[in-house]
Each structure stands twice: as C-alpha cells, then as structure tokens.
Amino acid sequence: MAVSPDLLEILRCPYCVSGPTRKAGDDPGRLELVKGTWLVCQEPDCGRKYPIKEDIPVMLIEEGDKWIDTPVSELAADPGPLVEPTEYVPVPRPSDFGTSRQGYDRQRLALLLLSILGVSILIAGLVYLLRPSDSSDA
Length: 138
Ligand SMILES: [Zn+2]
Hints:
The protein is an alpha+beta fold and 138 residues long. It contains five helices and four strands, in the order ααββββααα. The protein has helices at 5-10, 14-17, 61-65, 94-129, 133-137; strands spanning 31-34, 38-41, 49-53, 56-57. Zinc ion binds at residues 13, 15-16, 29, 41, 43, 46, 48.
C-alpha cells in the first residue's frame, strides 16, 4: 500500500464534491479505504467506489459509476492493472518500423511470386491453345 495517508485524507468522491451533484455538508464525499485498494464514498446515496490501481487512485466518476451496484464485500482485492491490456496502444519504436517494413517487403515479394505464377499459367494456357492444330489430329 504505497498511497500516502496524507493523499487519502484529502481525496474526495468527485461526484459528491462537484457541480450540481455536490452533497450537503461541510465535507461531502469522504472516502473510506477498503481492502487497501478501494476508496468507497461514504455518502449514503452515492455508492461509488474508486479502485487504487498500481498505487494510483482512479478518481474518475465514470470509474466510480461502474461499482455503484457492487457490494463492498464483492470488490476484488486486486482491481487490476491501471491500463487494461485491450486498451493498450503501443507507441511505435524505431525497431518496430524496421519489423513492419520487413513484413511489407515480404508481402510484396509474395504478391510478385503470385503474379509470376499467374502469368506462367496464362502463357502455358496460350501455348496449349495456340499449338499447331495438326498435332491434335495426329
Ligand atoms: Zn460519492
């Protein structure tokens, strides 16, 4: 648990402290740390829960929304990685460009070979069709 207690002390449920959804009181949206990896909004009608992923509290209303209907007892002790693998977009590195160009060259080579094969078949067919007609009579 590397999130500092000082940080946790000042964090509040973003839904309950801002805009028209701000709750009444001097200090609305207080959060309780649960299982070391969840911040649970203490407002009775909120129910939002914010995961701490890789020691970083994900204080997004959309994230809290996902867990409104999940009881605290059913929260996973490990909320998962900060960035979901499916959302991961790799940043191209110079070495990747080399690899992709190599793949492109291989694709072009395969197309070239296919074209040569196609032309060969075409020529063979023409030769067969245009062969001297007397040879078929023989
Ligand atoms: Zn809240």
